[in-house]
Structures are given as C-alpha cells and as structure tokens.
Amino acid sequence: xxxxxxxxxxxxxxxxxxxxxxxxxxxxxxxxxxxxxxxxxxxxxxxxxxxxxxxxxxxxxxxxxxxxxxxxxxxxxxxxxxxxxxxxxxxxxxxxxxxxxxxxxxxxxxxxxxxxxxxxxxxxxxxxxxxxxxxxxxxxxxxxxxxxxxxxxxxxxxxxxxxxxxxxxxxxxxxxxxxxxxxxxxxxxxxxxxxxxxxxxxxxxxxxxxxxxxxxxxxxxxxxxxxxxxxxxxxxxxxxxxxxxxxxxxxxxxxxxxxxxxxxxxxxxxxxxxxxxxxxxxxxxxxxxxxxxxxxxxxxxxxxxxxxxxxxxxxxxxxxxxxxxxxxxxxxxxxxxxxxxxxxxxxxxxxxxxxxxxxxxxxxxxxxxxxxxxxxxxxxxxxxxxxxxxx
RNA sequence: GGAGGGAUGCCGGAGCGGCCAAUCGGAGCAGACUGUAAAUCUGCCGCCCUAAGGGCUACACAGGUUCGAAUCCUGUUCCCUCCA
Length: 391
Description:
Elements: H1 9-29, E1 34-40, H2 48-62, E2 66-72, H3 75-79, H4 86-107, E3 116-120, H5 122-125, H6 130-137, H7 142-146, H8 149-156, H9 163-179, E4 183-187, H10 191-203, E5 210-214, H11 240-248, H12 255-262, H13 267-278, H14 283-316, E6 326-327, H15 335-342, H16 348-356, E7 360-362, E8 365-366, E9 379-382, E10 386-390
Parallel strand pairs: 1-2, 1-4, 2-3, 4-5, 6-10
Antiparallel strand pairs: 7-8, 7-9, 9-10
The structure holds one RNA strand of 84 nucleotides.
C-alpha cells in the first residue's frame, strides 16, 4: 500500500505477508476484514495529520472492508501523564465527550457515514476490572518498555516516567481485542502500541492483527509534527481560504511529502512532480496545485476555485479581497483606536507599533499618524491580510 | 518517611541585590526582497497615556530585610529526582 512506512524492513515484510494471507482467508470465510484506527481526542478538531490514516481507512472502505473509527474517549484520559489534577478530570471528561462528537462528524468528510462504525473505547475499557489489568500486564516485561527510545531519553535526563504511561499500551491494546481487529492503522510512532495489541490478542486467543503504520505529518512550519497545540496545523473544518492559504505557507521543501500523504495522485505523477522540483520548476505553481487539491477535498471544487482566486487576488496581486468585513465607527475615532477596538490589533500598544512599522493603510495610503481621524466609508488594511471597511 | 533540586514573559531557557520590562533560541507580528502567506534579510514582540517622553503591572503565593529585590530571609502552595 502506498505510503505505509515501517522503521524496520523485517516488520514491513512480515506485515505484508500476513495481510495477503488474511485477505485470502477472509475471502474464503466470505467476510470483509475488520479494520480500525484509534484517535485520541486532545482538541476539538481533526487536522490534516489525522487524515493520513483516515484516508487509508477510506481506501479499505472502498474495497468493501468493515471500517471502525475508534475514538479514544477512555485512552485520552490516561494518555497525558502531565495531567494529574483529578479535580479537573470531570471537566476534561465532559470536553472529551464533546470533542469526540465533532471528531466523528469531521471524519465523515472523508469516510462514508453509512459504512463506518464509530466506536468509543470508554464503552469497554471502563468496564474492565483490576484483575483484567493484571492479566494483561502479565504479557509484558518492564524491559520491553525500558528499551524504548523516548523512555531511555527521559531516564537519562531524569524526567518523570509515569506508571500510567506503561499502562497506556494495555488500554489501547484491549481495543484490538474488543474489536477482534484484523488490521489496525497508526502512525509510525505507534508501532510499539500496535505490536502490543498483537500480543494481547494472542493472549485472549485471537489471531493477531496486521499493523500498518504511516508517517507522521510535519506541520506547516516544516519543523514539528502537525498539532493543534503547536499551531502549525491545517484543520479540515477550516474555511477554504484558510486551508488554501495555510497550504501555500508551507516551506517548499515539504511540498512533496504533502502531495504524497495528503492527495490521491499516483506514483507516476508523484515522480513527475519530484522531477519538476529538481529541475528547478517554480514551486509556487506546484504548491498552488497542492493547495487547490487539498481545499477541494474538504470543500468541493467550487469553493476551492474561489479560494484560489482569493489567494491570487489578495496575495499575488496585492489587491483587496471581494468581501471585506464592515465595522461601524463613531465620528471622532483615531486610526490607532479603531484598530484596537475592532480587534485588528490586540492592544493599543500593538496598534501603535503596527503604525510605526508602516503596516497600516487607509484606502491604499500608508498611515504614519496614529491620531489621524478615520472617516466613514474607507478601507483599512493592517499587515498583509487584515482588512476592515468603516461604516 | 528521609535527603536534595526547582517554580521567570506564548514555549524553551539565562539572570542570582541596583546597569531588568528582564540575555538568548523558538513561535508570532511587521517591513524589504521575491517565485507564494516559501526561502532570505532587517526590525518589533507586557499594558496604559496627548507616545521624541511619561506612568503602571510583572519573574508561583504571602510576608520580611534593604535607600533599592526576579535576585537575600521566613512561611505557604505546587513540581521533580534519589533513598526508604
């Protein structure tokens, strides 16, 4: 399968072999494969990073397999080891519930709602007894955890390692048992957890699942993994202009990765794009194609075209956008006050700074006097993409 | 239970009595340039004011010492490591 990625070629080969065999077996039994991927709910929105596996789920779905979208309503609560504040956990639980809902809805931008089973792992994990946990724990040794890279590093730097972190793979692993999964997808960093699932499945007398892992998507800063908390993400629920614009803002050198992981283009085309980049083609036009493709996936072709037009107009031609928000002003208002009040700047100090830096203009004319009175019916521009029309 | 270490701006992390609104890096913002909101370079980056200048609030919290404290002392809260 295009895009799957294992650090270890042996595992990859093994998994490929097992997957072929499982497909044959399933066909004989006249049943589809049961495929799933689990998502912890740390933020209310899905972003492009999540879509790598969701898109793979969709592929399985298109082949007629039984796709389960598992939301980690339970695992999310034990996942974050830094959060031990039990007083807050009730509120967190509530939030997780809400976010889980929006996760499912957003996932249906990719998956077929009719054919997808949405599962919440709190449904089964919260019912396990301490005895179950002990039983599962007997499948693993502490050494297996200690050799992990991240654990090693923290051991060396004296950072805390929480017991609950060791329990996390058990909880996640039980998902695979409960679902009787044939195949589980996950990010490469999840390999350890995915493999733990196999052990538990065997322990419970099931055939171990096939694990497929996929690369972690780098964020639009080109440095860290995409995540909401780092702010380097593109949410699939964001407006078309935003998705388009944010895609245009990724560094040129990660463009190919984005093509590979986030669009449907095939290998031949990918090779072609690669060649174009290497031969010094203008990355801008390729990136526009990428931005268009991604925007289209989540908003449709029409909106994608509009987003592209908007980008060309405002960014490339530095013209004003078609629609500018109107803001009602009082008679005696200075430009610095207006910018602050309307929220174009976070504070008066910032407004002053922006004016000093030459970032503010009225009807295309740069403003250098912060006390300038603003008339009605003019267009204010702050920086590259903040606009306002006074009324 | 015992011993030690720590809490600094969005994040990481200096500073260890005045030169601190606080070094530096990241993020963010702006300008220039351009091939795009890429890259690169430069600047900004607590809040308020009639903004060349002035004021206020800030270095976990509460007190204290001092002409003067992020820096010293006392207490409190929280966190980490090690031993048991």
